[in-house]
Amino acid sequence: MSEAPSPALPSGPANGAGGIDIVRLLLEGRAFFALIAIVAVFSLLSPVYFSTGNFLIMSSHVAIFGLLAIGMLIVILTGGIDLSVGSTLGLCGVIAGYLMQGVTIDALGLVLYPPVWVVVVLTCALGAFVGAVNGVLIAFFKVPAFVATLGVLYVARGVALLITNGLTFNNLGGRPELGNTGFNWLGFDQVLGMPVGVLVLAMVAVVAAVLLNRTAFGRWVYASGGNARAAELSGVPVRFTTVTVYVLSGVCAAIAGLVLSSQLTSAGPTAGSTYELTAIAAVVVGGAALTGGRGNVRGTLLGAFVIGFLSDGLVIIGVSSYWQTVFTGAVIVLAVLLNAIRYGRRPARAATPTVSAQPRPTA
Description:
By secondary structure, this protein is mainly α.
């Protein structure tokens, strides 16, 4: 059985002796080239843009979107979508703020102040639980991913509003005598000159890259997105894979919620609104196919930096927030068009040779 030919791409103006296709190179590296162009343009428009301090600040902002985008990428690789990551971020931030301000036990007349590491563990566990709910609805009850995660989006946002009564938890720094200090470390401290939030993003990105490229689970993810039915016939645990990718997305959203709450030193129920759209935009700009089976962590990180540096650059030069929304939407549409050119109209195939469909009997 012969393999289907790759989709034809328009030839560049010239191909070098090594057979390099200029158009293909531009398509595959578009996020990197876009990032270079953004930095160059805004450096010319603003004297403060191209500076170490500003890059560190912008990178701290990108860390939030990058964490959400990595979780979103893992879901999109299976052909799914997670619209609940923004609300999960807000809910997890609220829970972290609630725990940092003390848990009152009326029956015993006690107020418990858990240490920061306990707050982090419980918050990540909550993110994993929200992701598991999404995964079970999709994998076992066959609820479409769009509908399931949209419903969880509203539930998570509503729970956050109920917990806070619409208010915001402020002053999350803790008190030394209570032993719950250290939360600000995530948002404000630096290690070797790099913001902690950026280092957290780097660690999560490395773990995700190893998971996708060096483990059987990563092959299952790509195979499920390429052709779920063929993957299932080949022995891939598609249901387990589906639940797991949503759990990972929920954990990434929880980590993003912790970093954002630490940066703001407050936790509000509306935090993370529309962040799911930014995460999807970063994944698409990074070259992943929304149909599943194609994409990588490197491209997604570049996409997150493109979106973040563009948004911050527009703020620095004084562009209206309304125009920022227009530019972001235009970038998303352009990225989808380039993906259509790059991938053609073929259905996505699994990006691994180790998982294949059952052989077809010969005549």
